[in-house]
Amino acid sequence: MNAQHDEVLIIGGGVIGLATALALIDAGRGVRVLEAATVGSGASHGNCGTITPSHAPPLAAPGTIALGLRWMFTPDAPLYLKPRLDPGLWRWLAHFAARCNLKDWRQSTQSRSAILNDSRSRLAEWVERYGLQCEFAEEGLDYVFRQQANFDHYAKECESLREFGVVSEIFDGADYLRDEPALKPGVVGAVRFPEDARLRPDRYVAELARVVRERGGAIEENCCVDSLQDSANGVIVGTSLGPRSGSDAVIALGAWSPALARTLGIELPIQPGKGYSITYSRPSLVPRRAMVLKDRQVCVTVWESGFRLGSTMEFSGYDETLNATRLAALERGAGEYLHEPVGAVVHERWYGWRPMTWDDLPVLGRVPGKRKLWLAAGHGMLGVTMSAASGQLMADLIAGNTTAIDPAPYRMERFL
Questions:
Q1: Strand ranges, E, within 222-297
Q2: What is the pLDDT along the chain (416 residues), one digit of tens a residue?
Q3: Helix %, strand %, coil % for the chain, to 5?
Q4: Which of 94, 160, 282, 388 is surrounded by the fewest CB atoms within 10 Å?
Q5: Whole-number Å distance between alpha carbons of 256 and 36
Q6: Which of the listed residues 342, 357, 372 is the one where a domain comes to its end?
């Protein structure tokens, strides 16, 4: 049986795979997206939809280890490590711990800032150019605090972030509360990132898929990939629907990327970081813009179509349990800050696995030693935010075009 042949096969129909497909189509390449379930059904689906150049600092930072140890045995803590015997996780944590210093923090922040800033402007261009109906709004993001020491810490960090192009505004609690009636008394201060934005991520991904199809790309859902191999004409991909062949292939499977990469002899240092969200009908009194309730690390996003609480980071492997304790922590944290912390109707309780690298940078570029195989994975908590820049960078690398940002910090070779 002859395999269906395409110019580029993209393995994974999440936000990174679809953004790469769209950018490749614009570069004149034919694409076929192979998705094991349905497009956007992974980590893209239920995140909070904030577009955040402000999130340039990595998770690995001075003080993170002490904080993590304090939270380790607290099941509802914002950062939770489920105690278990997992050599791969402990190796990952050792590398992560080694980067919790100022020098590595600055290196990751610089590289994250480059891709975040490119993606922020590019995503706005895509929304306009392709008519993406995804409730995109350029209205900023606020960090809100009820603990003075925490507020003082973040206000000071904002000073160091200015050199990376992160713009912020500082408000004391009284001034902030005058303009934000959705919040209860007790706020001591807030930090605003005016260049951040928000969208509804499930609709963004659906819109990317629509545009890919309209512009001639193929998307095969319920098509599980189980093998990859080089061929005379490029790459042969074994799937549940039969073989597919392409001149190039891109692995964009998010937290599932390591398993497929392992069949190529590549160890991708990605751990699944489990995040949770709850989506409700819209309450009658809602915040004026997206915000993070920083003392509880709860993100609040408001759209015309709904209201979402989300966040938390749980290292529990590929555990498929919808943890009620962690969902309750989202509602409890929101209840400390908001007059109306939940909507009348729960639309969805959700979890998803974020693909976390230990340096908090994505893996973008050619598979080492494989001329026609590419990696686009490891975006951590920022897949939606980094999607447009990642897709464009991958398309430029595959097409041999000049890239908008330096690809060197994101190459797989940094782990070898």
A1: 225-231, 234-239, 244-251, 270-280, 290-293
A2: 456 789 999 999 999 999 999 999 999 999 999 999 999 999 989 999 999 999 999 999 998 887 777 776 677 888 888 877 889 999 999 999 999 999 999 999 999 999 999 999 999 999 999 999 999 999 999 999 999 999 999 999 999 999 999 999 999 999 999 999 999 999 999 999 999 999 999 999 999 999 999 999 999 999 999 999 988 889 999 999 999 999 999 999 999 999 999 999 999 999 999 999 999 999 999 999 999 999 999 999 999 999 999 988 899 899 999 999 999 999 999 999 999 999 999 999 999 999 999 999 999 999 999 999 999 999 999 999 999 999 999 999 999 999 999 999 999 999 99
A3: 35, 25, 40
A4: 94
A5: 11
A6: 357
Residue 112: inside a domain: no
Same domain for 207 and 302?
A: no
Same domain (yes/no): 22, 170: no
Q: Identify whether residues 364 and 338 lie together within a single domain.
A: no
Residue located via tokens 């891709």? 115
Range of the domain at 72: 54-100+128-196+270-357
pTM of the model: 0.96
Number of domains in the chain: 2
- Whether 123 is covered by a domain: the verdict is no
Of 398, 354, 43, give the one whose Cα is nearest residue 201.
43
Name residue, tokens 């980590």.
43
